[in-house]
Design brief:
Structural class of chain A: mainly alpha
Radius of gyration of chain A: 18 Å
CATH topology of the largest domain in chain A: Rna Polymerase Sigma Factor, Chain: A
Number of helices of chain B: 12
Radius of gyration of chain B: 41 Å
Order of helices and strands of chain B: HHHHHHHHHHHH
Largest sheet of chain B: none
Order of helices and strands of chain A: HHHHHHHHH
Largest interface: A-B, 46 and 33 residues
Number of strands of chain B: 0
Number of strands of chain A: 0
Oligomer: heterodimer
Number of domains of chain A: 2
Distance between the termini of chain A: 57 Å
CATH architecture of the largest domain in chain A: Orthogonal Bundle
Number of helices of chain A: 9
Chain lengths: 181, 224
């Protein structure tokens, strides 16, 4: 039995410290996942905290042997979806507000910043399912199977969404770069 | 492998979702096809751009506060009792432990009463009569109710309390009995006679009701 399984078992037995340990293990990926989706640091922190609270509340119903990580991601994504539904206008506007780390080469930084800005804009234009799939695949490094579990769909659907997302993103970026030139 | 098929498989290739055999076939094709190699290069740049989206770095303090907030929220909404904090090997223990504790307490209380320790514990005064019996325990309780010394005989169920004495006792209770006194008396009577209904009847006992209580005792326990 792995360390996470042991912690889960202890948390299921009502041991507060074990759940705290699980929070520490996953707070960074969950926070950055929510931040990528909502683009607002305070909202992302609130959503990430709510994710853990909901996970704790749902612990008694958690199926032993299932992946805690997958379950957490599923909760976080659902919360983000609800948040974005309620804050639709804020979603696009806030995506450019993330501060970039300063570099010693200002020109290169500017180019990279512009490229990132265009990419982020194109990424935000993607349909929700494709955006989520792309994030989980590229940024979270998940396999199709894992993504299918998080999103509750088939591997085929994940694969199709991933392929479409890459094609759409590539086309949007090409259109944007044509507009700039 | 043809270009069309390779291009179709490129997302799976960069996503590391292909079996080794298929990966090798694609790599062999890419080695001799600049067109497909360019397509791969575009996808890889895209991948890198998405993967390395800048995110604000957070310090240790942020994460500590994050954990603290989550745990505070959990404690606030779901206070974890001391019982839950302990790891129990079997879920049934959650019920067995309190049940065993209650049973043990009942045994101890009964043992104390039967051994005659109830009075001193209750009153903080050791009886001059030595180890207390059932009747003595009852007398101690009655003393607790601010009655004068009573005469009793050992052989009757109520320690030989004579009807007139008991009547006198009830008469002396002109003011309502304090809840603590009622509870004490009820608990002792229940322990002494094993009559649970007595406890219920005593609960609502007030000065005017004592006459009825006396009648009830007389009917159940024929005094001499």
């Amino acid at each position: 039995m792995g360390g996470e399984d042991r912690l889960l078992k202890r948390a299921l037995g009502g041991e507060e410290g074990a759940f705290e340990e699980l929070v520490r293990m996953y707070q960074t990926p969950i926070y950055y996942l929510t931040l990528r989706f909502v683009g607002d640091e305070q909202a992302a922190a609130d959503l990430a905290q709510t994710t853990f609270l909901k996970a704790f509340q749902g612990l008694p119903g958690f199926r032993q042997g299932a992946s805690f990580k997958t379950w957490l991601y599923r909760i976080a994504i659902n919360l983000c979806k609800n948040y974005l539904r309620d804050h639709k206008s804020k979603d696009i506007d806030s995506c450019d507000e993330i501060d970039l780390p300063s570099s010693s080469d200002p020109l290169r930084e500017l180019i990279e910043h512009e490229q990132q800005r265009l990419l982020l804009r194109a990424w935000r234009k993607l349909p929700e399912k494709q955006r989520i799939t792309l994030t989980l695949k590229v940024q979270e490094g998940m396999k199709y199977k894992e993504i299918a579990e998080v999103l509750g769909c088939s591997i085929g659907t994940v694969k199709a969404n991933f392929h479409h997302a890459l094609i759409t993103l590539k086309e949007t970026l090409q259109e944007d770069s044509n507009e700039v030139s | 492998m043809r270009c069309r098929k390779v291009k179709k498989l490129l997302p799976d290739y960069i996503g590391d979702e292909l079996p080794t055999k298929e990966k090798r076939r694609i790599e062999r094709h890419l080695d001799g096809c600049p067109n497909c190699k360019d397509a791969l290069k575009i996808l890889e740049e895209l991948w890198r751009g998405i993967a390395h989206q800048p995110l604000p770095p957070k310090g240790e303090e942020f994460w500590q506060e994050f954990t603290r907030n989550v745990m505070m929220e959990i404690r606030g909404k779901h206070p974890i009792s001391t019982e839950r904090k302990k790891t129990l090997p079997l879920p049934e223990w959650r019920f067995l432990i309190p049940a065993t504790t209650v049973a043990a307490l009942v045994i101890i209380v009964v043992a104390i009463v039967l051994k005659g320790l109830w009075g001193p514990l209750l009153l903080g005064v050791r009886s001059p009569l030595g180890p207390l019996g059932e009747q003595e325990a009852l007398v101690e309780v009655i003393s607790c109710l601010s009655f004068g010394p009573m005469a009793w005989e050992e052989e009757s169920p109520l320690g030989g309390i004579k009807p007139e004495e008991l009547y006198l006792l009830t008469e002396q209770l002109s003011s309502p009995i304090k809840p603590t006194e009622t509870a004490t008396m009820a608990a002792v009577l229940t322990l002494l006679f094993g009559q649970k209904d007595l406890y219920g009847e005593l609960e609502g006992l007030r000065g005017d009701d004592l006459e009825e209580f006396y009648q009830l005792l007389c009917s159940r326990y024929p005094f001499r």
